[in-house]
Amino acid sequence: MISPGEYFVEGDLAAAYGAIKAGCLFFAGYPITPASEITQAMAELLPRVGGKFLQMEDEIASISAIIGASWAGLKSMTATSGPGFSLMQENIGYAAMTETPIVIIDVQRAGPAIGQASRPAQGDIMQSRFGSHGDYETIVLSPNSVQEMFDLTIKAFNLAETYRVPVIVLSDAEVGHMMERLIVPENVEIVNRRIAKSLQETTIYDESLVSPMGRFGDGLELMITGSTHRPDGTRDTGTPEVQESLVKRLVNKIEKNRERIENWEEMYTDDADILVISHGASSRPSKGAVIRARKEGIKAGFLRPKVLWPSPEKRMKELESNVKKVILPEMSLRGYKMEVERIFRGKLLHMPKVGGVVPTVEEILKKIREASL
Amino acid sequence: MIQIRIGGWAGQGVILAGTILAETFSRVLKKNVVMTRSYTAAVRSGITTSDIIVDDDEIYDLIITRPNVMIFMYQKTLDRYIDLAKKSDFVIVDSSLIKNIPEEIKNVYKIDASRIASEISSPRIANMVLLGYYSRVTGHLGLRDLEESIRNTVSKRFVEEDIRAITAGYSFSPQ
After folding, report:
1. Which of A190, A230, A280, B58 is most buried (most C-beta within 10 Å)?
2. Residue range A53-57: average pLDDT?
């Protein structure tokens, strides 16, 4: 359907192509700038591959519909931006609690509230991990190019299917709306969930703490509830041990597998005095600034989490003992700051840029120069 | 690296012109290209821009910092970006619609794009006339490269008309 080859498309469209390539057969959504192009593309593409597209009345309905479709056995996705992402939070927790594989693309724009609808920002990072109540973990990916909108959307489906969790592709208006070359390869790695053939099978966890998933219509008499439940799905909100073992497993599914999930790009880190950490759109000028700084003889290094949650904690801790300063350019006053500060503490020089404009190489280089003095 | 901004008014085909130019660099000439857009709906009206960054290397800066070329299709857009235009190597304007060009803007290349477009068919293809003229003035890409890109991108019924427009722009002596 999406033929292998070279395209010149915007990030949003590349994400839709990635979803189709990953085997997505259901999309429910409500249009919102700057994610509407994903919704529009899925409306056009899904019927051609035998999938279903539903425009819903709002974002709460959208995420509810994809949770249902996932239980019907379909790979399912929705796409939104800040205001819609906020509305989805309750059911992100529901998907985590019911271990439903779904993909949510949040093309971040400047907030709070309506904010700057068409301008990029990176203020949803903590929300993407902590937005729903209670103890749970999600996986959050951060594309910085049109190619990665495609690649990481496929990866999001694979991770959702592997760990039975909601996976969030946290893009931004810059990456979502910019146009670049996209290479669609001949072959992409696709992961499909293990389907349970009996109710008993749904209670057997592998070493990753994941069990095969039942499917509506297969006659398994599934019980699916957001209330605390036993492994077979039956509701039990009164037994402390049931809640304890359930939420511990929901968290440990990610925590114990984090080294398999973590993913980052790094450059010049071996002897770096100044480490520049950046993600999404702002990582592009950050990398350019590090290369320029090296040419000036400054020992700068670059680290870019492609997976924001779980963060590359172990790698950051290794680097912590060697680097003197850490610069974090990002389009938010909060962004990823708490996570980086947790590890690098007083070494962090936060470099937020708000206003809906991506920082430039020159601005970041100036900060690197100052830090090197 | 080449940094280009095309600026006009909603409905003038700024985004299409930018897309064709960006696609020509990316798909025909195999350069790395980032294109970003700022726009409103034609019915709301407003300033529309299309920014293109071209490089042989990986592209790091995602926004225009020091333009090499600015193509203006509307007076208000020129007025908005005078400071950037002062720094640009080439400033190409549709002189049918832009009459007031501040003296401090150097390297101005004027073309009566809307009038030339009207003579071919309609002022709506002034954007294509400007692309042809851009090719002639800067030499960044050839007329044939643009033509190939138009054939790949534009709906079939507009291809011949658009090619006539870029050819007319290309044939115009720089002034």
Report:
1. A280
2. 98
Where are chain B's structural domains? 2-171
For residue A22, give the nearest of A159, A208, A196, A143 by alpha carbon. A159
Q: Tokens 């080439």: give the residue.
A: B90
Q: Determine the Cα–Cα distance for residues A172 and A269; give it in Å rounded to an integer.
A: 26
CA distance A10 to B133: 27
pLDDT value, residue B133: 98
pLDDT digits (tens, 9 = 90+) for A234-251: 999 999 999 999 999 999
β-pair partners for A285: none
- Which string of DSSP letters, residue by residue, matches A278-336? --GGGHHHHHHHHHHHHHTT--EEEEEESEEES--HHHHHHHHTT-SEEEEEESSSSTT
Q: Which residues of A are less than 8 Å from B23 in CB distance?
A: 8
Q: Number of A to B CB contacts under 8 A, please give it.
A: 57
Domains and CATH numbers, chain A: 5-184 (3.40.50.970), 200-259 (no CATH), 265-372 (3.40.50.920)
Nearest to A35 by CA among A140, A180, A178, A177: A177
Assign domain B2-171 one CATH number from 3.30.230.10, 3.30.470.20, 3.40.920.10, 3.40.50.2000. 3.40.920.10
pLDDT at B35: 98
Distance from the Cα of B45 to chain A's closest Cα (Å) equals 16
Nearest to A8 among B23, B37, B61 (CB): B23
Which of B19, B34, B60 has the CB atom closest to A180's CB atom?
B34
State residue B38's pLDDT score.
Answer: 86
Q: Does the distance separating the beta carbons of B61 and A281 come in below 8 Å? A: no
A248 contacts: CB under 8 Å, gap ≥ 6? none
